[in-house]
Amino acid sequence: MAIIVVEVMLKPEILDPQGVAVGAALPRLGFTFAKSVRQGKRFEIEVEGTPTAAQMADIEKAAATLLANPVIETYVVKVQA
Amino acid sequence: MAIIVVEVMLKPEILDPQGVAVGAALPRLGFTFAKSVRQGKRFEIEVEGTPTAAQMADIEKAAATLLANPVIETYVVKVQA
Fold first, then answer.
1. What total number of domains does chain B contain?
2. DSSP label of B15
3. Which CATH number characterizes residue A18's domain?
C-alpha cells in the first residue's frame, strides 16, 4: 500500500484571500515571523501495492482534471515514503 | 528567504467528507487507482533569512493555535529546500 500526495497551490500571480487572511491574523496573535502566507490543498491518495508508471500517469491526469484547476493552480504529485 | 511548509490533515479517525467526495468522483471520471482519499490543507509561510530555532518554535505554536485544530487535526512543519 502506497500513499500518493498531490499538493495544489494557487499560482503566485493569483490572489490568495485565505493566505492573506492567515497572514493578517498571525501578527494579531503575536507571531511576527511571516513575510507572506499562501494556502493550498493537499490530497493523500491511498493506492493498492506499489504504484505503477501507468497509475502515476493516471494520477497526474486526475490531478489536472479533478484535484487542481491548471488555469489558476499548480500541482505536484509525490509518492510518500 | 525560506519557505516553511505546514501540512494539516484531519486525524485518521475523523470523517473527511471532502476526501470521500473526491474518492467518489474519481471512478465516475474513469480513475480507478484510489482505495481512499483524504484532503487537507497546506500553508507556505515565507520567512526572512534562514529560520532560527526560536522562529521554528513560534511557527509550531502558530500551527497549533491558528493553522490547525489539534483536537481533530494533525500538522507537520517542514522547511522547504
1. 1
2. -
3. 3.30.1280.10
Grid cell 494556502 in the structure block, residue: A39
Q: How far apart are CA B35 and CA B53, in angstroms?
A: 39
Contact between A43 and B39 using a beta-carbon 8 Å cutoff: yes
The residues near B17 (Cβ < 8 Å, ≥ 6 apart) are none
What pLDDT does B1 receive? 86
Say if the ipTM goes beyond 0.90: yes
Q: Which domain holds residue A28?
A: 2-80
CA distance B32 to A74: 23
CB A70 within 8 A of CB A58: no
Residue B18's pLDDT band (cuts 50, 70, 90): very high
Residue B13 near chain A (CB below 8 Å): no
